[in-house]
Specification:
The chain is an alpha/beta fold. The protein contains 11 helices and 8 strands.
């Protein structure tokens, strides 16, 4: 079954590492795109100890850097490998205002823009793979229920890139709203093309992963103390991602939002088609400025927005 390629970002810990383990156990080739290759090698070794037949490929990528994402995609696509599933899992939570290499707010750059560019550059390969194999391609965006905290007047593209008054929790919520809007917009365009590729967003649940552990403090400690009875294990947190990626029950479903392995409702703002179109139009215009002509060659034949 190794002719099936499942691509995952951020698989070095937490939900991502568990997702990689489950996928490898299913007998597919797992491609992990990670920032920390040393940690990735350790995850790979653990998976192979459990499952000696596992086939895992590692690539280095910094999702906060648009130039890094573009270089990676060019490298990956030059190998002419198939691509069946793309899981946009990697994420950061930055309590303090930080900026990416391109001077974009770090949380938004990593959680949304990097994955947006990654998806744009890989989508034609996914469409081609699905057409040749007859197997539905699937894209899964990791989101969060916290997306519902965002108010319309707080979701302005210029302010997402360069916030004036920064709040880490708000920035994280905004980035997770953006991942749902991306799924909604891209789903519509894929349907218009009759492409055999779906895209959905998932909420993994409240899981105390490395994103939170790296930022100890009174607020996060108190939040998890209050929510302790609702906390999921790492394996439970990865369950919805794996369900949407692997289950026959999700075949043909696109532009949806899942939690606890069930389709559920997202916020009204996340369902705003005009907001989704505007976000993707602005994002595409932005990323074009960071690509050379050879990299633009990999972008969709039509504007996926």
């Amino acid at each position: 079954m190794f002719d099936a390629f499942y691509f995952l970002t951020g698989g070095t810990s937490g939900i991502g590492a568990e997702t990689a383990r489950v996928l490898a156990k299913r007998g597919v080739r797992v491609v992990m795109a990670v920032r920390d290759m040393k940690k990735a090698e350790m995850v790979k070794e653990r998976i192979i100890r459990e499952n000696p037949e596992a086939d895992i490929m590692l690539f280095e990528i910094d999702l906060s850097s648009l130039s890094s994402v573009a270089r990676f995609c060019s490298q990956f696509l030059s190998q002419d490998l198939p691509l069946n599933i793309l899981i946009n899992n990697a994420g950061v939570f930055s309590p303090n205002l930080e900026f990416s290499e391109e001077k974009i707010e770090l949380t938004f750059a990593t959680n949304f823009l990097g994955h947006y560019l990654l998806t744009e550059m890989l989508i034609e390969k996914m469409i081609d793979t699905a057409e040749k194999s007859g197997i539905e391609g699937r894209i899964i965006n990791l989101s969060s229920v916290i997306h519902s905290w965002v108010k319309p007047d707080c979701f302005s593209f210029p302010k997402l890139l360069h916030p004036i008054r920064y709040n880490g929790t708000r920035a994280y919520a905004q980035s997770k709203l953006a991942t749902i809007l991306h799924a909604k917009a891209l789903s519509k365009q894929l349907k218009d093309r009759n492409a055999n590729v779906t895209i959905n967003a998932v909420h993994p649940g409240i899981v105390k992963t490395g994103i939170i552990r790296a930022h100890k403090g009174l607020f996060t400690d108190s939040l998890f103390l209050i929510a302790s009875k609702l906390l999921k294990s790492i394996s439970q947190g990865a369950a919805t991602t794996c369900y949407v990626a692997l289950s026959n029950e999700t075949k043909g479903l696109s532009g949806k939002y899942f939690a606890d392995c069930n389709e559920t409702n997202c916020s009204d703002l996340a369902n705003d088609e005009s907001m989704a179109l505007k976000l993707c139009t602005q994002s595409r215009a932005l990323i074009h400025g960071y690509l050379d002509e050879s990299q633009k060659h990999y972008l969709p034949n039509v504007c996926l927005m």
